[in-house]
What does this fold into?
Amino acid sequence: MKRYKDDFPILQTTVNGHPLVYLDSAATAQKPNPVIDAVAAYYRETNANPHRGNYDLSVRATEAYEQSREVIRKFIGAEKSEEIIFTRNTTESFNLLAYSYGMNFIGKGDEIVISILEHHSNLIPWQQVAKAKGATLKYLYINNEGEIPDEEIENKITEKTKLVSITHVSNVLGSISPVEKIVKKAHSVGAVVALDCAQSIPHFEIDVKKLGVDFAAFSGHKMLAPMGIGVLYGREELLDKMPPFFTGGDMIEYVYEQDFTAAPLPQKFEAGTQNVGGAVGIAAAAHYIEKIGYENIIKTETELTKYALEKLSTVPYITIYGKKNSVGRCGVISFNIKDAHPHDVASIVDAGGVAIRSGHHCAQPLLRYLGLNATCRASFYFYNTFEDVDILVENLKSVRKWLGYGA
Amino acid sequence: MGLEDIYTQIIMEHNASGRNKHHIDSPNLVLKGVNPSCGDEITLELRVKDGKIEDASFTGVGCAISQASTSIMIDLIKGGTVEEAKEHIKTFMGMIRHEITDEKQLESLDEAVALKNISHMPARVKCAVLAWHTLENALAKKS
It folds into this structure.
Protein backbone atom coordinates (compact mmCIF):
# COMPACT_ATOMS: atom_id res chain seq x y z
CA MET A 1 0.00 0.00 0.00
CA LYS A 2 1.37 3.42 -0.95
CA ARG A 3 2.24 5.62 1.99
CA TYR A 4 0.39 8.96 1.79
CA LYS A 5 0.95 9.86 5.45
CA ASP A 6 4.19 11.69 4.72
CA ASP A 7 2.28 14.53 3.02
CA PHE A 8 0.43 15.28 6.28
CA PRO A 9 2.57 17.02 8.93
CA ILE A 10 0.06 16.46 11.76
CA LEU A 11 0.24 12.70 11.21
CA GLN A 12 3.92 12.83 12.14
CA THR A 13 3.11 14.11 15.64
CA THR A 14 2.54 12.24 18.90
CA VAL A 15 -0.43 12.29 21.28
CA ASN A 16 -0.16 11.18 24.90
CA GLY A 17 3.30 9.85 24.14
CA HIS A 18 2.18 7.73 21.17
CA PRO A 19 2.29 8.42 17.43
CA LEU A 20 -1.06 9.92 16.44
CA VAL A 21 -3.45 7.40 14.88
CA TYR A 22 -6.14 9.63 13.42
CA LEU A 23 -9.39 7.77 12.76
CA ASP A 24 -11.88 10.63 12.76
CA SER A 25 -11.72 11.82 9.17
CA ALA A 26 -15.52 11.68 8.87
CA ALA A 27 -15.51 14.59 11.34
CA THR A 28 -12.71 16.47 9.63
CA ALA A 29 -9.79 15.46 7.43
CA GLN A 30 -6.17 16.34 8.14
CA LYS A 31 -4.46 18.74 5.75
CA PRO A 32 -1.63 17.89 3.34
CA ASN A 33 1.34 20.19 2.77
CA PRO A 34 0.16 21.41 -0.67
CA VAL A 35 -3.07 22.75 0.91
CA ILE A 36 -1.31 24.32 3.89
CA ASP A 37 1.27 25.87 1.55
CA ALA A 38 -1.33 27.26 -0.86
CA VAL A 39 -3.24 28.96 1.96
CA ALA A 40 -0.02 30.34 3.49
CA ALA A 41 1.13 31.61 0.07
CA TYR A 42 -2.21 33.36 -0.44
CA TYR A 43 -1.87 35.21 2.87
CA ARG A 44 1.81 35.92 2.27
CA GLU A 45 1.48 37.20 -1.28
CA THR A 46 -2.07 37.84 -2.49
CA ASN A 47 -4.39 38.83 0.37
CA ALA A 48 -6.76 41.78 -0.17
CA ASN A 49 -10.52 42.25 -0.16
CA PRO A 50 -11.79 40.88 -3.48
CA HIS A 51 -14.41 42.47 -5.73
CA ARG A 52 -13.73 45.90 -4.26
CA GLY A 53 -10.39 47.64 -4.60
CA ASN A 54 -9.18 48.95 -7.95
CA TYR A 55 -5.57 48.11 -7.20
CA ASP A 56 -3.39 45.27 -8.29
CA LEU A 57 -3.47 43.24 -5.08
CA SER A 58 -7.27 43.32 -4.85
CA VAL A 59 -7.53 42.28 -8.49
CA ARG A 60 -5.23 39.34 -7.77
CA ALA A 61 -7.26 38.36 -4.69
CA THR A 62 -10.41 38.48 -6.83
CA GLU A 63 -8.71 36.28 -9.42
CA ALA A 64 -7.60 33.80 -6.77
CA TYR A 65 -11.17 33.59 -5.48
CA GLU A 66 -12.80 33.22 -8.91
CA GLN A 67 -10.18 30.76 -10.12
CA SER A 68 -10.97 28.60 -7.10
CA ARG A 69 -14.61 28.66 -8.08
CA GLU A 70 -13.66 27.52 -11.57
CA VAL A 71 -11.54 24.68 -10.13
CA ILE A 72 -14.51 23.50 -8.04
CA ARG A 73 -16.89 23.80 -11.02
CA LYS A 74 -14.68 21.44 -13.04
CA PHE A 75 -14.10 19.20 -10.03
CA ILE A 76 -17.81 18.44 -9.65
CA GLY A 77 -18.73 18.61 -13.34
CA ALA A 78 -21.01 21.65 -13.14
CA GLU A 79 -21.81 23.53 -16.31
CA LYS A 80 -21.27 27.12 -15.17
CA SER A 81 -19.19 28.76 -12.46
CA GLU A 82 -22.28 30.80 -11.48
CA GLU A 83 -23.69 27.56 -10.16
CA ILE A 84 -20.98 27.30 -7.49
CA ILE A 85 -21.86 29.25 -4.33
CA PHE A 86 -19.20 29.42 -1.64
CA THR A 87 -20.54 29.02 1.89
CA ARG A 88 -18.95 28.23 5.25
CA ASN A 89 -19.83 24.55 5.28
CA THR A 90 -22.51 21.97 4.45
CA THR A 91 -24.71 23.25 7.27
CA GLU A 92 -24.74 26.76 5.83
CA SER A 93 -25.37 25.36 2.34
CA PHE A 94 -28.48 23.54 3.56
CA ASN A 95 -29.68 26.56 5.50
CA LEU A 96 -29.31 28.68 2.39
CA LEU A 97 -31.29 26.08 0.45
CA ALA A 98 -33.98 25.69 3.11
CA TYR A 99 -34.53 29.39 3.70
CA SER A 100 -34.20 30.59 0.13
CA TYR A 101 -35.70 27.66 -1.81
CA GLY A 102 -37.73 25.83 0.85
CA MET A 103 -39.46 28.84 2.39
CA ASN A 104 -40.44 30.19 -1.04
CA PHE A 105 -41.23 27.17 -3.17
CA ILE A 106 -42.69 24.73 -0.66
CA GLY A 107 -46.18 25.33 0.69
CA LYS A 108 -49.02 23.95 2.77
CA GLY A 109 -49.70 20.27 2.19
CA ASP A 110 -46.47 19.76 0.21
CA GLU A 111 -44.04 17.05 1.21
CA ILE A 112 -40.31 17.16 1.83
CA VAL A 113 -38.57 13.78 1.78
CA ILE A 114 -35.28 13.07 3.58
CA SER A 115 -33.85 9.83 5.00
CA ILE A 116 -33.34 8.57 8.53
CA LEU A 117 -29.59 8.56 7.78
CA GLU A 118 -29.38 12.37 7.70
CA HIS A 119 -26.88 14.41 9.66
CA HIS A 120 -28.68 17.15 11.63
CA SER A 121 -27.50 19.68 9.01
CA ASN A 122 -29.77 18.13 6.38
CA LEU A 123 -32.59 17.57 8.83
CA ILE A 124 -33.30 20.51 11.12
CA PRO A 125 -33.44 23.10 8.29
CA TRP A 126 -36.22 20.99 6.70
CA GLN A 127 -38.05 20.70 10.03
CA GLN A 128 -38.01 24.49 10.10
CA VAL A 129 -39.43 24.75 6.57
CA ALA A 130 -42.09 22.12 7.27
CA LYS A 131 -43.18 23.90 10.46
CA ALA A 132 -43.23 27.37 8.91
CA LYS A 133 -45.00 26.37 5.70
CA GLY A 134 -47.33 23.65 6.93
CA ALA A 135 -45.55 21.02 4.85
CA THR A 136 -44.92 17.41 5.88
CA LEU A 137 -41.42 16.03 6.52
CA LYS A 138 -41.21 12.38 5.48
CA TYR A 139 -38.41 9.88 6.05
CA LEU A 140 -36.98 7.09 3.94
CA TYR A 141 -36.08 4.31 6.38
CA ILE A 142 -33.28 1.76 6.05
CA ASN A 143 -32.89 -2.01 6.06
CA ASN A 144 -30.55 -4.06 8.28
CA GLU A 145 -27.59 -3.22 6.06
CA GLY A 146 -28.19 0.48 6.66
CA GLU A 147 -29.34 0.98 3.08
CA ILE A 148 -32.45 2.62 1.65
CA PRO A 149 -34.60 -0.06 -0.04
CA ASP A 150 -36.35 0.55 -3.39
CA GLU A 151 -39.85 0.28 -1.83
CA GLU A 152 -39.13 3.26 0.40
CA ILE A 153 -38.24 5.36 -2.63
CA GLU A 154 -41.28 4.15 -4.57
CA ASN A 155 -43.74 4.63 -1.70
CA LYS A 156 -42.55 7.78 0.05
CA ILE A 157 -41.84 10.02 -2.95
CA THR A 158 -45.28 11.00 -4.27
CA GLU A 159 -47.04 13.62 -6.37
CA LYS A 160 -47.06 15.81 -3.25
CA THR A 161 -43.26 15.72 -2.92
CA LYS A 162 -41.63 19.02 -3.80
CA LEU A 163 -38.09 18.36 -2.60
CA VAL A 164 -35.98 15.32 -1.76
CA SER A 165 -32.80 16.02 0.21
CA ILE A 166 -30.65 13.01 0.86
CA THR A 167 -27.23 12.14 2.19
CA HIS A 168 -24.93 10.52 -0.34
CA VAL A 169 -22.97 8.57 2.30
CA SER A 170 -24.06 8.00 5.90
CA ASN A 171 -21.69 9.59 8.42
CA VAL A 172 -22.60 6.86 10.93
CA LEU A 173 -22.89 3.63 8.92
CA GLY A 174 -20.89 4.42 5.77
CA SER A 175 -23.74 3.19 3.57
CA ILE A 176 -24.14 4.75 0.11
CA SER A 177 -27.55 6.03 -0.99
CA PRO A 178 -29.07 4.90 -4.32
CA VAL A 179 -28.94 8.41 -5.81
CA GLU A 180 -29.81 7.34 -9.35
CA LYS A 181 -33.08 5.71 -8.27
CA ILE A 182 -33.99 8.61 -5.99
CA VAL A 183 -33.33 11.20 -8.71
CA LYS A 184 -35.35 9.22 -11.25
CA LYS A 185 -38.36 8.87 -8.97
CA ALA A 186 -38.18 12.46 -7.67
CA HIS A 187 -37.94 13.96 -11.14
CA SER A 188 -40.82 11.81 -12.34
CA VAL A 189 -43.08 13.56 -9.83
CA GLY A 190 -41.58 17.00 -10.50
CA ALA A 191 -39.60 17.27 -7.25
CA VAL A 192 -36.09 18.73 -7.01
CA VAL A 193 -33.25 16.72 -5.47
CA ALA A 194 -30.53 18.01 -3.13
CA LEU A 195 -27.58 15.77 -2.32
CA ASP A 196 -25.47 15.98 0.84
CA CYS A 197 -21.98 15.19 -0.46
CA ALA A 198 -20.14 16.01 2.78
CA GLN A 199 -19.18 12.35 3.29
CA SER A 200 -18.91 11.33 -0.36
CA ILE A 201 -16.77 13.93 -2.13
CA PRO A 202 -13.69 13.17 0.01
CA HIS A 203 -13.84 9.54 -1.14
CA PHE A 204 -15.19 9.27 -4.67
CA GLU A 205 -15.91 11.37 -7.74
CA ILE A 206 -18.97 13.60 -7.76
CA ASP A 207 -20.32 14.62 -11.14
CA VAL A 208 -23.47 16.64 -10.57
CA LYS A 209 -24.47 16.34 -14.24
CA LYS A 210 -24.12 12.57 -14.34
CA LEU A 211 -25.91 12.23 -10.99
CA GLY A 212 -28.63 14.54 -12.28
CA VAL A 213 -29.11 16.29 -8.93
CA ASP A 214 -30.48 19.83 -8.76
CA PHE A 215 -28.48 20.88 -5.70
CA ALA A 216 -25.40 19.49 -3.96
CA ALA A 217 -23.72 20.59 -0.73
CA PHE A 218 -20.35 19.82 0.81
CA SER A 219 -17.70 21.12 3.21
CA GLY A 220 -14.10 21.81 2.34
CA HIS A 221 -12.68 20.63 5.64
CA LYS A 222 -13.70 17.01 5.14
CA MET A 223 -11.91 16.95 1.77
CA LEU A 224 -8.52 18.17 3.03
CA ALA A 225 -9.26 21.93 2.82
CA PRO A 226 -9.37 24.38 5.76
CA MET A 227 -12.47 24.75 7.92
CA GLY A 228 -14.82 27.60 7.06
CA ILE A 229 -15.25 27.00 3.33
CA GLY A 230 -18.09 25.00 1.83
CA VAL A 231 -20.06 24.80 -1.38
CA LEU A 232 -23.64 24.83 -2.54
CA TYR A 233 -24.08 23.76 -6.13
CA GLY A 234 -27.42 24.58 -7.74
CA ARG A 235 -28.75 24.51 -11.27
CA GLU A 236 -28.64 28.06 -12.58
CA GLU A 237 -32.32 28.09 -13.45
CA LEU A 238 -33.23 27.31 -9.82
CA LEU A 239 -30.65 29.59 -8.19
CA ASP A 240 -31.85 32.41 -10.43
CA LYS A 241 -35.39 32.35 -9.11
CA MET A 242 -34.33 32.03 -5.46
CA PRO A 243 -34.18 35.21 -3.34
CA PRO A 244 -30.96 36.12 -1.46
CA PHE A 245 -30.37 34.40 1.90
CA PHE A 246 -27.90 36.68 3.69
CA THR A 247 -28.01 40.32 2.65
CA GLY A 248 -25.50 43.12 3.01
CA GLY A 249 -22.15 43.89 1.43
CA ASP A 250 -21.06 42.51 -1.91
CA MET A 251 -24.36 40.83 -2.84
CA ILE A 252 -25.96 43.96 -4.27
CA GLU A 253 -26.24 45.90 -7.51
CA TYR A 254 -27.89 49.13 -6.34
CA VAL A 255 -28.98 50.10 -2.87
CA TYR A 256 -31.56 52.81 -2.18
CA GLU A 257 -32.93 54.10 1.10
CA GLN A 258 -35.83 51.63 1.10
CA ASP A 259 -34.81 48.93 -1.34
CA PHE A 260 -32.01 47.17 -3.18
CA THR A 261 -31.40 45.09 -6.27
CA ALA A 262 -29.37 41.91 -5.92
CA ALA A 263 -26.18 41.17 -7.78
CA PRO A 264 -26.29 38.36 -10.36
CA LEU A 265 -25.16 34.83 -9.50
CA PRO A 266 -23.09 33.80 -7.68
CA GLN A 267 -22.55 37.09 -5.76
CA LYS A 268 -26.27 37.20 -4.94
CA PHE A 269 -25.66 34.47 -2.36
CA GLU A 270 -22.27 35.60 -1.10
CA ALA A 271 -22.89 38.51 1.26
CA GLY A 272 -20.02 40.11 3.12
CA THR A 273 -16.29 39.63 2.74
CA GLN A 274 -15.73 36.08 1.63
CA ASN A 275 -13.25 33.44 2.79
CA VAL A 276 -10.78 33.78 -0.06
CA GLY A 277 -8.03 31.91 1.79
CA GLY A 278 -10.49 29.06 2.30
CA ALA A 279 -11.46 29.10 -1.38
CA VAL A 280 -7.80 28.91 -2.35
CA GLY A 281 -7.50 26.01 0.10
CA ILE A 282 -10.42 24.04 -1.29
CA ALA A 283 -9.08 24.49 -4.83
CA ALA A 284 -5.66 23.23 -3.69
CA ALA A 285 -7.40 20.28 -2.02
CA ALA A 286 -9.25 19.45 -5.23
CA HIS A 287 -5.96 19.54 -7.15
CA TYR A 288 -4.30 17.32 -4.56
CA ILE A 289 -7.14 14.78 -4.73
CA GLU A 290 -6.87 14.78 -8.54
CA LYS A 291 -3.15 14.18 -8.25
CA ILE A 292 -3.63 11.23 -5.90
CA GLY A 293 -6.55 10.04 -8.05
CA TYR A 294 -9.94 8.91 -6.78
CA GLU A 295 -9.22 5.42 -8.13
CA ASN A 296 -6.26 5.15 -5.74
CA ILE A 297 -8.26 6.63 -2.88
CA ILE A 298 -11.05 4.09 -3.43
CA LYS A 299 -8.57 1.21 -3.72
CA THR A 300 -6.73 2.15 -0.51
CA GLU A 301 -9.87 2.81 1.50
CA THR A 302 -11.60 -0.37 0.36
CA GLU A 303 -8.59 -2.42 1.50
CA LEU A 304 -8.46 -0.56 4.82
CA THR A 305 -12.19 -0.95 5.46
CA LYS A 306 -12.09 -4.65 4.62
CA TYR A 307 -9.12 -5.17 6.94
CA ALA A 308 -10.70 -3.15 9.75
CA LEU A 309 -14.06 -4.95 9.51
CA GLU A 310 -12.29 -8.31 9.57
CA LYS A 311 -10.09 -7.43 12.53
CA LEU A 312 -12.91 -5.87 14.56
CA SER A 313 -15.08 -8.94 13.88
CA THR A 314 -12.50 -11.18 15.54
CA VAL A 315 -13.07 -9.45 18.90
CA PRO A 316 -16.05 -11.26 20.47
CA TYR A 317 -17.36 -8.35 22.55
CA ILE A 318 -17.40 -5.81 19.69
CA THR A 319 -20.67 -5.20 17.82
CA ILE A 320 -20.43 -3.54 14.39
CA TYR A 321 -23.47 -1.63 13.11
CA GLY A 322 -24.53 -1.51 9.46
CA LYS A 323 -22.95 -3.37 6.59
CA LYS A 324 -20.42 -5.99 7.68
CA ASN A 325 -18.64 -6.35 4.33
CA SER A 326 -16.59 -3.71 2.58
CA VAL A 327 -18.35 -3.75 -0.80
CA GLY A 328 -20.53 -0.75 -1.64
CA ARG A 329 -19.81 1.16 1.55
CA CYS A 330 -17.41 3.84 2.74
CA GLY A 331 -14.79 3.61 5.47
CA VAL A 332 -16.96 4.76 8.36
CA ILE A 333 -17.42 2.03 10.97
CA SER A 334 -19.71 2.41 13.97
CA PHE A 335 -19.36 -0.13 16.74
CA ASN A 336 -19.71 -0.69 20.47
CA ILE A 337 -17.86 -2.70 23.08
CA LYS A 338 -20.05 -4.76 25.39
CA ASP A 339 -20.75 -2.98 28.73
CA ALA A 340 -18.52 -0.03 27.78
CA HIS A 341 -19.88 3.40 27.04
CA PRO A 342 -18.42 4.95 23.85
CA HIS A 343 -17.03 7.93 25.80
CA ASP A 344 -14.99 5.67 28.00
CA VAL A 345 -13.81 3.77 24.93
CA ALA A 346 -12.72 6.99 23.20
CA SER A 347 -10.90 8.23 26.33
CA ILE A 348 -9.14 4.92 26.85
CA VAL A 349 -7.90 4.52 23.26
CA ASP A 350 -6.92 8.21 23.25
CA ALA A 351 -4.40 7.40 25.96
CA GLY A 352 -2.82 5.14 23.32
CA GLY A 353 -2.74 7.95 20.74
CA VAL A 354 -5.84 6.78 18.85
CA ALA A 355 -8.45 9.41 17.91
CA ILE A 356 -11.95 8.02 17.36
CA ARG A 357 -15.33 9.67 17.69
CA SER A 358 -17.92 8.71 20.30
CA GLY A 359 -21.49 9.88 20.71
CA HIS A 360 -24.48 10.39 18.44
CA HIS A 361 -22.52 11.79 15.47
CA CYS A 362 -25.04 14.60 14.87
CA ALA A 363 -27.59 11.98 13.80
CA GLN A 364 -29.83 11.52 16.84
CA PRO A 365 -32.92 10.31 14.91
CA LEU A 366 -30.80 7.60 13.24
CA LEU A 367 -29.34 6.39 16.54
CA ARG A 368 -32.80 6.33 18.09
CA TYR A 369 -34.06 4.37 15.06
CA LEU A 370 -31.23 1.87 15.58
CA GLY A 371 -32.11 1.68 19.28
CA LEU A 372 -28.76 3.10 20.34
CA ASN A 373 -27.75 5.88 22.69
CA ALA A 374 -24.26 6.36 21.31
CA THR A 375 -21.61 4.51 19.31
CA CYS A 376 -17.88 4.56 18.77
CA ARG A 377 -16.92 5.51 15.24
CA ALA A 378 -13.67 4.91 13.43
CA SER A 379 -13.46 6.56 10.01
CA PHE A 380 -10.69 6.12 7.49
CA TYR A 381 -9.12 8.21 4.80
CA PHE A 382 -6.49 7.20 2.25
CA TYR A 383 -3.70 8.40 4.55
CA ASN A 384 -4.49 5.70 7.10
CA THR A 385 -2.59 2.42 7.13
CA PHE A 386 -3.07 -1.22 8.15
CA GLU A 387 -0.85 -0.43 11.12
CA ASP A 388 -3.36 2.23 12.25
CA VAL A 389 -6.05 -0.46 12.28
CA ASP A 390 -3.79 -2.81 14.26
CA ILE A 391 -3.10 -0.12 16.87
CA LEU A 392 -6.83 0.68 17.13
CA VAL A 393 -7.77 -2.96 17.70
CA GLU A 394 -4.96 -3.49 20.18
CA ASN A 395 -6.15 -0.47 22.21
CA LEU A 396 -9.79 -1.57 22.00
CA LYS A 397 -8.83 -4.89 23.51
CA SER A 398 -7.69 -3.11 26.71
CA VAL A 399 -10.97 -1.21 27.22
CA ARG A 400 -12.97 -3.74 29.21
CA LYS A 401 -10.08 -4.32 31.58
CA TRP A 402 -9.91 -0.60 32.38
CA LEU A 403 -13.61 -0.58 33.18
CA GLY A 404 -13.36 -3.46 35.60
CA TYR A 405 -14.85 -6.23 33.47
CA GLY A 406 -11.85 -8.55 33.31
CA ALA A 407 -11.28 -9.51 29.66
CA MET B 1 -1.30 11.52 33.57
CA GLY B 2 -2.22 7.89 33.00
CA LEU B 3 -5.55 6.18 32.60
CA GLU B 4 -5.08 4.60 36.02
CA ASP B 5 -5.54 8.05 37.59
CA ILE B 6 -9.04 8.27 36.08
CA TYR B 7 -10.26 4.69 35.81
CA THR B 8 -9.50 3.88 39.44
CA GLN B 9 -10.68 0.86 41.41
CA ILE B 10 -13.41 2.94 43.05
CA ILE B 11 -14.75 4.20 39.71
CA MET B 12 -14.67 0.73 38.20
CA GLU B 13 -16.50 -0.79 41.17
CA HIS B 14 -19.24 1.80 41.22
CA ASN B 15 -19.66 1.57 37.44
CA ALA B 16 -19.78 -2.21 37.31
CA SER B 17 -21.89 -2.87 40.45
CA GLY B 18 -24.89 -0.65 39.69
CA ARG B 19 -25.63 -0.81 43.40
CA ASN B 20 -27.44 2.56 43.52
CA LYS B 21 -29.05 2.16 40.12
CA HIS B 22 -32.70 1.32 40.75
CA HIS B 23 -35.99 2.94 41.70
CA ILE B 24 -36.85 3.79 45.32
CA ASP B 25 -40.18 3.67 47.14
CA SER B 26 -42.30 6.84 46.90
CA PRO B 27 -39.66 9.37 45.85
CA ASN B 28 -40.82 12.97 46.28
CA LEU B 29 -38.01 14.61 44.33
CA VAL B 30 -37.20 13.31 40.87
CA LEU B 31 -35.02 15.20 38.43
CA LYS B 32 -33.44 14.31 35.12
CA GLY B 33 -30.04 15.61 34.06
CA VAL B 34 -28.63 15.34 30.52
CA ASN B 35 -25.44 16.12 28.69
CA PRO B 36 -26.96 16.70 25.26
CA SER B 37 -23.62 16.70 23.50
CA CYS B 38 -22.72 13.19 24.61
CA GLY B 39 -26.07 11.64 25.41
CA ASP B 40 -25.41 10.96 29.12
CA GLU B 41 -28.76 10.82 30.84
CA ILE B 42 -29.47 10.25 34.52
CA THR B 43 -32.58 10.59 36.65
CA LEU B 44 -32.12 11.11 40.37
CA GLU B 45 -34.79 9.88 42.77
CA LEU B 46 -34.84 11.24 46.31
CA ARG B 47 -37.17 10.87 49.25
CA VAL B 48 -36.73 13.99 51.38
CA LYS B 49 -38.50 14.36 54.71
CA ASP B 50 -37.99 17.10 57.31
CA GLY B 51 -34.78 18.28 55.66
CA LYS B 52 -33.32 14.78 55.58
CA ILE B 53 -32.57 12.64 52.51
CA GLU B 54 -34.08 9.35 53.61
CA ASP B 55 -33.39 7.46 50.41
CA ALA B 56 -31.80 8.11 47.04
CA SER B 57 -31.08 6.27 43.80
CA PHE B 58 -30.66 6.86 40.09
CA THR B 59 -31.52 5.40 36.70
CA GLY B 60 -30.26 6.20 33.22
CA VAL B 61 -27.49 5.64 30.72
CA GLY B 62 -24.02 7.07 30.47
CA CYS B 63 -20.32 6.45 30.56
CA ALA B 64 -18.41 4.90 33.47
CA ILE B 65 -17.42 8.33 34.78
CA SER B 66 -20.97 9.71 34.90
CA GLN B 67 -22.41 6.48 36.32
CA ALA B 68 -19.73 6.10 38.98
CA SER B 69 -19.86 9.77 39.94
CA THR B 70 -23.63 9.51 40.42
CA SER B 71 -23.36 6.35 42.47
CA ILE B 72 -20.62 7.79 44.71
CA MET B 73 -22.67 10.94 45.24
CA ILE B 74 -25.69 8.90 46.30
CA ASP B 75 -23.63 6.99 48.88
CA LEU B 76 -22.45 10.33 50.21
CA ILE B 77 -25.81 12.10 50.56
CA LYS B 78 -28.10 9.21 51.53
CA GLY B 79 -29.10 9.50 55.17
CA GLY B 80 -27.71 13.02 55.51
CA THR B 81 -29.48 16.36 55.56
CA VAL B 82 -30.25 18.57 52.56
CA GLU B 83 -27.87 21.20 53.98
CA GLU B 84 -25.04 18.65 54.17
CA ALA B 85 -25.74 17.60 50.59
CA LYS B 86 -25.47 21.24 49.46
CA GLU B 87 -22.11 21.52 51.26
CA HIS B 88 -20.89 18.35 49.50
CA ILE B 89 -21.86 19.78 46.12
CA LYS B 90 -19.93 22.97 46.87
CA THR B 91 -16.85 21.05 47.94
CA PHE B 92 -17.02 18.68 44.97
CA MET B 93 -17.32 21.51 42.44
CA GLY B 94 -14.50 23.33 44.21
CA MET B 95 -12.32 20.21 43.90
CA ILE B 96 -13.08 19.80 40.18
CA ARG B 97 -12.30 23.47 39.54
CA HIS B 98 -9.08 23.18 41.57
CA GLU B 99 -10.31 25.89 43.96
CA ILE B 100 -10.21 23.49 46.87
CA THR B 101 -6.97 21.50 47.02
CA ASP B 102 -6.55 21.11 50.79
CA GLU B 103 -6.80 17.38 51.49
CA LYS B 104 -8.34 17.93 54.92
CA GLN B 105 -11.12 19.97 53.38
CA LEU B 106 -11.71 17.27 50.76
CA GLU B 107 -11.95 14.50 53.34
CA SER B 108 -15.69 15.06 53.68
CA LEU B 109 -16.14 13.91 50.08
CA ASP B 110 -14.98 10.39 50.93
CA GLU B 111 -14.88 8.24 47.74
CA ALA B 112 -15.74 11.21 45.52
CA VAL B 113 -12.12 12.30 45.89
CA ALA B 114 -11.40 9.58 43.32
CA LEU B 115 -12.70 12.03 40.69
CA LYS B 116 -10.12 14.69 41.60
CA ASN B 117 -8.01 13.96 38.53
CA ILE B 118 -10.83 14.29 36.03
CA SER B 119 -9.82 17.89 35.30
CA HIS B 120 -6.79 16.41 33.53
CA MET B 121 -9.25 15.02 31.00
CA PRO B 122 -11.16 18.17 30.06
CA ALA B 123 -13.42 16.28 27.67
CA ARG B 124 -14.77 14.25 30.58
CA VAL B 125 -15.38 16.92 33.23
CA LYS B 126 -19.00 17.30 32.20
CA CYS B 127 -19.52 13.56 32.74
CA ALA B 128 -18.23 13.81 36.31
CA VAL B 129 -20.30 16.84 37.31
CA LEU B 130 -23.62 15.84 35.71
CA ALA B 131 -25.09 14.17 38.81
CA TRP B 132 -23.92 16.94 41.12
CA HIS B 133 -25.42 19.66 38.92
CA THR B 134 -28.64 17.71 38.72
CA LEU B 135 -28.78 17.34 42.51
CA GLU B 136 -28.05 21.04 42.93
CA ASN B 137 -30.99 21.87 40.66
CA ALA B 138 -33.24 19.35 42.39
CA LEU B 139 -32.52 20.76 45.84
CA ALA B 140 -32.92 24.34 44.63
CA LYS B 141 -36.32 23.38 43.25
CA LYS B 142 -37.30 21.91 46.61
CA SER B 143 -36.43 24.92 48.73
Chain A has a mean pLDDT of 96. The interface with chain B takes residues 339-344, 347-348, 351, 358-360, 373-374, 402-405 of chain A (CB under 8 Å).
